[in-house]
């Protein structure tokens, strides 16, 4: 059971004091710090389901020997005490580190060589003590520790911190490198990549390497089998995050199966173009999404895979906006219809939409003469296309028919009836229409609000146009 001493508990408030953070935490193993902090929270909660070493180990994803070693470590420093199953915390304010006595003769040469390499400052006795404790706890040879100190000085300068040296030593020991021969061979291997690594770091604005960046570079070269050229090329695109962010990018490229600069360059160019096109499409439709990746996957990429040019997709989006069809599903329906007609280039799509709207100015004039307000509708386009394309009626004859329908309840339907009669009678000019017996202005009935008309199936179908490619 974890509990607080009277000095460590103040009105039930648990505080991680500055003294612990400054004087104790920097030298401790990360897992030991986790055990200390989680145990401290258990002590504050008193009765807790996790209030045992076994449950604490499971919660922290650690093994029980590691938790026991952490408790022994903090106990040696006077921050804890263990009596059976009871573990008591003490306040760092009233505690003096218990410096464990080590065999002085055993580490005389280590002290001399370590101080020789760390020449910018005097190594304090408690710092030496941290090195001794780590070597004995991890069964690390002192000659290996000297090599680690030299390696860290070469990387970080002769004012390198004790926590950094301890971290590198722990990493090597955790990988199974504990003897001087093994550690020396491992560090020599890292040194092979040092110059290439520094070139990569410099292009990212990083002035100094560290053990982790060396380890990552070795992984990229040995495990990922990337060339120095590829690593340097990708590094140029990393603006922040250093080697860690570069590792994220390189790992992603490896998962995608890219191993050359050309492959990465092509992928990045396509990705940028995809994002640019997607944002342009959304702007045309009046849409905004923080994350456009789902849209690219569901719509943009499949459209491009169908063979559509980017300009064709954007033209279709602008068309949908004019038609007040602002959903991506609406745009998808238009794109699929265009594909069914074999229209995939920007030129083809614009021509198709242009044919549909080519009579808009004429229709606008008709609407004005008929005193009809509002935008040009698809039904008006269908009527006009039928008159001009199917029946080959000249514009002036259509305009004349509008003058006869100005006072009708449904003027376009009335115009259609007149023009159909003229078409069936072979009338092709205004003069013929005025003298034709097919429809005389004096014979037209007074407005009743309803116009009844009869059409053949062919005539009805001709009133509705579809986007088709010119023969």
Explain briefly what this protein structure is.
The protein has 471 residues and is mainly alpha-helical. The protein contains 24 helices and 3 strands.
Q: Strands of the biggest beta sheet: in what spatial order?
A: 1-3-2
The secondary-structure class comes to mainly alpha
- Nearest-integer average pLDDT: 83
Into which percent range does the helicity of residues fall? 55-70%
Instruction: Tell me the radius of gyration.
Output: 41 Å
Strand content: under 5%
End-to-end span in angstroms?
A: 88 Å
Q: How many DSSP helices?
A: 24
User: In oligomeric terms, what are we looking at?
Assistant: single chain
Query: SSE string, helix = H, strand = E?
Result: EHHHHEEHHHHHHHHHHHHHHHHHHHH
**Major beta sheet summary:** 3 strands, mixed
Query: Which outline best applies?
Result: elongated
Overall strand count: 3
Low-confidence stretches: 440-455, 457-471
Model description:
With 471 residues, this protein is mainly α. Helices cover 61% and strands 2% of the residues. The chain has 24 helices and three strands. The protein has a three-stranded mixed sheet. Strand 2 and strand 3 form a beta hairpin. Helix 6 packs parallel to helix 8 (162-174) and helix 10 packs parallel to helix 12 (228-235). The chain is elongated. Residues 440-455 and 457-471 have low confidence and may be disordered.
């Amino acid at each position: 059971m974890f509990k607080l001493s009277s000095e460590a508990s103040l009105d039930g408030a648990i505080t991680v004091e500055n003294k612990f953070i400054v004087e104790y935490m920097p030298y401790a193993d990360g897992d030991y710090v986790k055990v200390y902090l989680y145990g401290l929270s258990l002590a504050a909660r008193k009765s807790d389901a996790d209030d045992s070493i076994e449950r604490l180990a499971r919660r922290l994803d650690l093994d029980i020997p590691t938790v026991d070693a952490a408790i022994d470590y903090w106990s040696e420093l006077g921050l804890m005490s263990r009596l059976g199953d009871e573990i008591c915390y003490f306040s760092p304010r009233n505690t003096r580190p218990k410096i464990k006595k080590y065999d002085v003769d055993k580490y005389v040469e280590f002290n001399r060589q370590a101080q020789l390499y760390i020449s910018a400052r005097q190594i304090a006795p408690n710092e030496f003590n941290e090195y001794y404790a780590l070597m004995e706890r991890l069964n690390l040879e002192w000659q290996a520790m000297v090599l680690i100190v030299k390696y860290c000085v070469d990387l970080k300068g002769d004012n390198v911190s004790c926590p950094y040296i301890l971290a590198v030593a722990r990493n090597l020991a955790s990988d199974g490198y504990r003897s001087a021969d093994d550690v020396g061979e491992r560090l020599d291997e890292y040194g092979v990549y040092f110059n290439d690594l520094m070139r990569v770091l410099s292009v990212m604005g990083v002035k100094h390497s560290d053990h982790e960046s060396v380890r990552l570079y070795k992984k990229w070269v040995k495990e990922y089998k990337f060339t120095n050229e590829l690593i340097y090329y990708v590094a140029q695109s990393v603006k922040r995050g250093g080697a860690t962010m570069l590792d994220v990018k390189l790992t992603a490229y490896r998962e995608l199966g890219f191993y050359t600069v050309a492959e990465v360059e092509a992928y990045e160019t396509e990705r940028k173009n995809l994002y640019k096109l997607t944002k342009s499409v959304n702007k045309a439709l009046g849409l905004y999404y923080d994350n456009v990746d789902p849209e690219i996957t569901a719509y943009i990429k499949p459209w491009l895979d169908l063979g559509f040019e980017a300009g064709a997709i954007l033209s279709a989006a602008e068309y949908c906006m004019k038609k007040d069809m602002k959903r991506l599903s609406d745009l998808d329906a238009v794109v699929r219809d265009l594909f069914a007609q074999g229209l995939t280039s920007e030129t083809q799509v614009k021509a198709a939409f242009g044919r549909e709207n080519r009579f808009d100015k004429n229709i606008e004039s008709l609407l004005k003469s008929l005193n009809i307000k509002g935008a040009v509708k698809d039904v008006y386009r269908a009527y006009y296309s039928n008159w001009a394309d199917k029946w080959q009626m000249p514009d002036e004859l259509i305009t004349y028919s509008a003058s006869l329908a100005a006072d009708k309840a449904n003027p376009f339907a009335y115009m259609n009836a007149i023009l159909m009669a003229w078409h069936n009678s072979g009338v092709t000019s205004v003069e013929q229409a005025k003298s034709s017996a097919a429809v005389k202005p004096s014979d037209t009935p007074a407005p009743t609000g309803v116009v009844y008309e009869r059409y053949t199936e062919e005539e009805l179908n001709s009133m509705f146009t579809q986007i088709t490619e010119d023969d």
